[in-house]
Give the backbone structure.
Amino acid sequence: MRCHPTPARATRLPLSLFAVVATAIALAGCSAFLDGPDAPVARRAARLLPADALLLGEQHDAPEHQALERETVEALAAKGKLAALLLEMAEEGHSTARLDSAATDAQVQAALGWNDKAWPWQSYGPVVMAAVRAGVPVIGANLPRARMKNAMTDVSLDVQLNGEAYTAQQDAVREGHCKLLPEPQIVPMTRIQVGRDRAMAQAIVKARQPGKTVLLVTGAGHATKVLGVPQHLPTDVSVKAVRLQAGESPDEKAENRRAYDAVWRTPPLPPKDYCADMRTR
């Protein structure tokens, strides 16, 4: 992403001085949006706070993203500013709130109803345990699987987004299923996506505390401000959304600017055809 200094307009500053000031402001704004892989997490987070909720939208198979999430937990907890850690990876109704900070990994997994096959504990355990050790509750925020069937037929979910956003969400579902999903399944699957976003938004509202920040770890598609969880939050909840992005995709730059408050870049991953398995089924 390239950042350009603000063009000179009518001003009382000498042109050379104005250029220096304008360039500094523009570059500061750029760095607040896009940080390199070596920028300290505490500094990245501080630029976005205060906020009632901070959303980290990850790429699930990027280990560096879970490392950033753990560091964010530690940075907020160290300042006493972490209200709760919310997870897409655990279902609503599960929490570590009753556990001691010395709880074992096994006790924490049991409390969260953890599905290791879907979400490897090796990847997410350090994120979760950082919060537990700090005495911060870890809360399942995802729509329970038992309620997904009902969500598929819930027509009220069709009007939770405006028409343009709902259409875009349907397109995202198509792309997310490699354009292999039969068209009659698009609407039911979109309802599930919206239902999951609403569940996570409701979990944020329940967990927020004055002067602290609720941290939600989720996929990038749920974190987007134009389609995801922020769309379902009350207007009095201040929220900042971060995209954790492995490598750089030029086509996503404009989209990122509109959908997220910041992008935290990590090194690129080896190329992978994510649709290969779906094509062979």
User: Anything to note?
Assistant: The CA atoms of residues 125 and 273 lie 27 Å apart. The first helix runs from residue 15 to 33. The radius of gyration is 20 Å. Confidence is low (pLDDT under 50) at residues 1-31.
